[in-house]
TrEMBL record:
Enzymatic reactions: [protein]-peptidylproline (omega=180) = [protein]-peptidylproline (omega=0)
Keyword terms: Isomerase, Rotamase, TPR repeat
Database matches in SUPFAM superfamilies: TPR-like
Protein name: peptidylprolyl isomerase
Organism: Clytia hemisphaerica
Length: 175
């Protein structure tokens, strides 16, 4: 019969996997880092809402304390944010947007997540959303300058878009 892992044990295991992921990321081994972050997320997946299989097996779910809930949410946010860092380097921009958005569900003021999502939106040519993320960073920390190079590029791209739209409308009217 298998032993039931406690909430704290799952959090500890998830933390260990995250740290291994961090090590692989620093070494430049993105594939292994991504795998470790996913494993960490799997450890904490059912902590807030117990698995339906536990219920079927007659295992009574343990109530999660506020402290444990904070730890779960914090670790989940960090893992999503770290995954997005790996995926940004791999130029998987849609996944970066997905994971940073998940990280931001837990902390809307996470500058790293906003910055990475802003970059991903920029690379997918969604300049309005990119600008929104970078402006949010500025509202959180007016002294932060990480987004300045992107803001200049966003403005340039928006000007080109405006010129192109005007030209398209002119051609339609001349039609």
């Amino acid at each position: 019969m298998s032993k039931t892992i406690t909430i704290n044990e799952k959090l500890e295991k998830a933390g260990e996997e995250k740290e291994l992921g961090n090590g692989f990321f620093k070494e430049g081994n993105l594939r292994k880092a991504i795998k470790k972050y996913h494993i960490a997320l799997m450890y904490i997946k059912d902590l807030e809402k117990p698995s339906p299989f536990d219920k079927l097996a007659g295992i009574e779910p343990k109530k999660v304390t506020d402290s444990e809930l904070h730890g779960i949410k914090s670790l989940r946010s960090v893992c999503y944010n770290n995954l997005s860092a790996c995926l940004l380097k791999s130029e998987e921009y849609q996944k970066v947007i997905e994971y940073t958005t998940k990280a931001l569900e837990y902390d809307q003021s996470n500058i790293k997540s906003l910055y990475r999502r802003g970059q991903a939106h920029f690379h997918t040519k969604d300049f309005d959303k990119s600008e929104k993320d970078f402006l949010h960073i500025k509202s959180i920390d007016p002294k932060e300058t990480c987004y300045n190079p992107f803001m200049k590029k966003i403005e340039a791209n928006k000007k080109v878009r405006t010129v192109n739209e005007k030209e398209m409308y002119r051609k339609m009217m001349d039609g």
